[in-house]
Amino acid sequence: MDKSPRVSPDQVISTFYDATLNPALWQFGLNQFASLMDSQGSILMLADPSRAGAEIAFNVGYSEEVVSAYNEYYNTLDPLVGVVPYSEVGCWTADANGKAWPDQNNAREYHNDLLRKHDIGGILASLVVREDRLVATISVQRFGLQNSYRDDDHLAAREVMPHLQRAIKLYFRMQELQIPAGIAQAALDHVTAPMLVVDGSCNLRFANRAAERLLSRQCGVVVRFGRFSTRSRALEVQQAIAQAASATASRGSAHSLDSGSNAAMHLLVLPMPLKLAASHFNERPMALIVIHETCRSYTSVESSLRSLYHLTAMEARIACMLADGLSTQEIADEQSISILTLRTHLKSVFSKTGLRRQAALTQMITTLASIHSSSEC
Asked: Which superkingdom does the taxonomy of this entry point to (predicted)?
């Protein structure tokens, strides 16, 4: 490996911090660090304290074959793995091609079969982070069997080490945060119902795999220039999204669309249950859209009415019975309540749903019934 131009500690520090958000930059940062340390190779190793050995996470100067051989076998023989992780943070340990451990059989195998084979003359390694779930070490290597390190060669890293420690901790935290996000993404991609997240201006922020397939058909719903829209009742749906994605949203809504196919298309527009970026300067409330293509078929929708509009159990039951065509007297008789009490419940239903006419209430419940139907067209 040719020597890289010498760089300043500030350049190395800046690259390591950038690597916390862009892992591809770790290799560039290690290349700069190797140059700073007058070295030709550099390795960042991460280890789980509960497991034996360590793995090369990022490196410069080594082929994939060498990295694989180390991670799969030689890491258990590396004498530095048994010393550096238990030393003080920032304390450098030098290994001049095995001279520090001449009497250890494993060390001799490691140095003879790996280091000397690849013409590595010396290694300088230091512990960077030691926590309950992470041990991180960094090392630099000089190629050429006679090219070892002096006792003061580690001094060039003094300015970099505290920042490298912070950068690795930040990187580890970022990786931890991505785990639940990745799990959620994978779970949503397994859901058969198309699901989208939009902001109040209908800008698309997320679509699961089923939604991507539906959008590719351009049947009933589309995304143009990054904005979600529907081919029918566009204004109605836009208003529902704006309402659901408002800071004060407390309920969702259901909508039926003309999809242009034999199947009926129905949308549930729901407020997101939590703020995704409470401290972000550009925070925008969002709405969740769940799409169903089903045949129209009545089924129990009481739970949805209670969830979407906060109806009581009695109010949801009365609304469903009214949508099924029962008269007010029939409902009152079946529920063993007076007409006056029934009218009080109905007044509350219309108030909570924001509807004014029985026909509109029936249409909304029909939409919910279709969404919850298990039959396929």
From this structure: Bacteria
Q: Which amino acid is at 348?
A: S
pLDDT in tens, 352-368: 999 989 888 988 888 88
What is the full DSSP assignment across 252-310?
-EEEEE--SSSSEEEEEEEE-SS-S-TT-TT---EEEEEEEEE-------HHHHHHHH-
Is residue 250 domain-shared with residue 361, that is, in the same domain? no
Domain for residue 113, yes or no?
A: yes
The CATH code of the domain that includes 310 is 1.10.10.10
Nearest-angstrom CA–CA distance, 109 and 97 = 11
Structure-token match 């009933």, residue found: 220
Q: Are 306 and 313 in contact (CB under 8 A)?
A: yes
d(CA 164, CA 15): 10
Does a structural domain hold residue 34? yes
Distance in angstroms (rounded) separating the CA atoms of residues 346 and 358: 10
Place of tokens 């911090």: 17
CA pair distance 273, 333, nearest whole angstrom:
38
User: Can you give the pLDDT at residue 294?
Assistant: 60
State yes or no: pLDDT of 229 exceeds 70: yes
Phi, psi of 26 (to 5 degrees): -60, -40
Tokens linked to 122: 């010396």
Q: Are 133 and 230 in a shared domain?
A: no
CB 319 within 8 A of CB 311: yes
Residues 223 and 161 in one domain: no
> For residue 160, which of 57, 10, 28 has the smallest C-alpha distance?
10
